Amino acid sequence: MIRLRHFGPAMTPPKVAEAFRAALGAALGLLACDALLWLLAPATTHGLFLLIAPFGASAFLIFVLPNSPLAQPWSVVIGNGIAGGAALGCLTLIHDPLVAAPFAVACAILGMALTRAFHPPAGAVALATVIAAQSAGFPGWSFLLSPIIAGSAALVAAGILWNRATGRSYPFRQPPPPSTHGTADPLPQRRLLPPPAAPAHLLHRL
Questions:
Q1: Which residues contact 148 (CB under 8 A, 6 or more apart)?
Q2: Predicted model pTM
Q3: Three-class SS of residue 44?
Q4: Quick check: 46 and 38 in contact, CB under 8 A?
Q5: If you placed Cys at 86, which of 71, 108, 117, 141 could pair as Cys (CB 3.0 to 4.6 Å)?
Q6: 12-49 residue pLDDT tens
Q7: What is the largest CA-CA distance in the chain?
Q8: Alpha-carbon distance 23 to 8, whole Å?
Q9: Where residue 2 falls among pLDDT bands split at 50, 70, 90?
Q10: Which of 83, 80, 101, 71 is nearest to 168 (CA)?
């Protein structure tokens, strides 16, 4: 049975200091991203807005949830890059943007699955690329390098500096699961396996 309270917040309230840390980091990260894109942009485009909207979602993951697998450098840079490339490829084959947009997202998801680079904002990168391509001054395939890949890399670099400076671990790798027996011994199903050096030792004796 659905109750009214089911529609309320599902998360516990964060600490104010942690929320401020993440918010300030996201702002500084996007500023760093903006600065890099400004340096890479031609002089004729310096008066234009250089950030793309999905970078806001990427910044959220990097600075608010730095331990998430979706926020790790490989996921951010490769995921966004694949999404941009998928969108540009779809636009080459499908000239109607209304049709190209959904196929661009679908191809981005497949590409991220094959490369283990799932990054939710990349779905928005695919859409943003299709939308940007409708403007008269769209740069074509160079859009993949800047702003998509360069901006993603700048956000990751800012995330590494800020998270480590404020006591958070980023990049973050999940530790191996502990033994169910509370010891450092291998799991029972792996105790009968030879040590890693055994096959090489046997081959050397032959």
A1: 52, 80, 81, 83, 84, 125, 129
A2: 0.82
A3: helix
A4: yes
A5: 108
A6: 888 999 999 999 999 999 999 999 999 998 876 766 77
A7: 73
A8: 23
A9: confident
A10: 71
